[in-house]
């Protein structure tokens, strides 16, 4: 059955029902139109529009009237935000429970591809899937080669400034895993043959990198012509969230399974085309949004009109009638959105000046969402003097760029414990925190017993629990360690770490490898070394510890500024945001001055070369609820008549300007 046969037309009464169920405020016409739509539609929703809440409300209405026990709604995204929101908003309701179980399916695009396409194809070839994990797969590929073969291939690649870890399977013919890809070595060379042997052996053993599942997904679709049609019958309605972040390999699978123009399936794509900040190697074949099927939600509950007006010129995809800020100012005097101008050669005082502005204009209760300083470039590499300030480290030398990577691996178990504790305090569930601790435990066990053949596969926490379920005493100790690290009121002390927690962790590592009584390698003790938590945050922020948090203290009052890349903060809400000048081919904010000043030339269709920078600025500018600041160099503002003209234009555009003078040299 199609969606129209499974669900009766959605009425205003259904919208009122879900508003009451979820405690929603009055909804405007575009939001009501989205909830009532029964057609394939592309929803372009601005930052702070309540997109995830609207998605959950839409799903609740559909599930309430769903007639089939065998066909369901398929909800796909890049994270589990939709599932978490359903659990949070509807977990205690009957309709929420319906959404979370068969026949409906909620997962990531990657998870869907693995379950319905990649895994069945591997089973059809008699291959047992062992792991979809980059690190485990690189190790499996290394095991396929002799020491000499591996060393030779690695050296050859490094001469071309490449890494063999960047290689991916391009063909489901595992005897020719590279397909037609040119890797810089001819097929007859020893290097090429070694790499084919490595990739082929690991693939046949069931090991794959994260993004290789889409090759396997296409393999099943090529092999079995009816798979796509069967999945469309199984899921006559599919909702894809954060569509602007969908990569070509993901979109290719989705387009084959759920074609946007198939009349028998309803494809609801939701996202913000102005937040497409993650690089795509090739454009999508079916671009988002489709102008003929677009529904626009351009009003934000997050910020006021002052911030909306400043951010609107940076909407690379123009917003009809402009971005609208719905939040009413919470203080009688408007909070100044400020450009901090610093001497070209000294950016080190910017964070202090930003902190002073926050303390002056934002009372403590207005800082609950956090105070942030973000940059387009946060990793300091290949620095040249004319690029200053290039990255966040130039504003605060203690900044560590590696902690914000999704692939971040703590240097020590103690560091991992401190970061996991941060995750547990900040996120709605402890899933990320527990998974990080499980990763650290798995890494400890490998370092402690390097000769053990045991390998943990898949998600670390699930793998650890699977092994320990048959060993109740060790399982209880594992749970105790999680409790002692994550769920105690105060930070773990050095005494508890050394005397209580570390011995338990070593015992658990031995149990995981079934090597009780075997000597522990020295590397494990180094990995378990104690190190204190980073600087403490203010009491209003759970009293925890954060890496990359700059503390400013002024008398009895103080403020924490969390530093991060703009990419890392996408989708998040701040109380106050400072966007720092950084260098990416050129100075980031300086390049965007025409849009900041509101020049007429900037109102024309922006060039493609400005797309990435404009979207990064748009994402950064739409994070804060209360205060937005920028930091630019004095030379960007200009001197003399040019500087005065630019100051006037910026003030007209809604900015206050704070200029820092150069410090006198110390005699």
TrEMBL record:
Q: Where is the UvrD-like helicase ATP-binding domain?
A: 24-310
Please name the SUPFAM superfamilies in this protein's record: P-loop containing nucleoside triphosphate hydrolases
Entries under Gene3D superfamilies matching the protein: P-loop containing nucleotide triphosphate hydrolases
Sites binding ATP sit at: 45-52
Keywords for this entry? ATP-binding, Helicase, Hydrolase, Nucleotide-binding
Q: Which domain of life is it from?
A: Bacteria
Q: Which Pfam families match?
A: UvrD-helicase
Q: Quick check: keyword rRNA-binding in the entry?
A: no
This one is known as DNA 3'-5' helicase II
The species is Pseudomonas synxantha
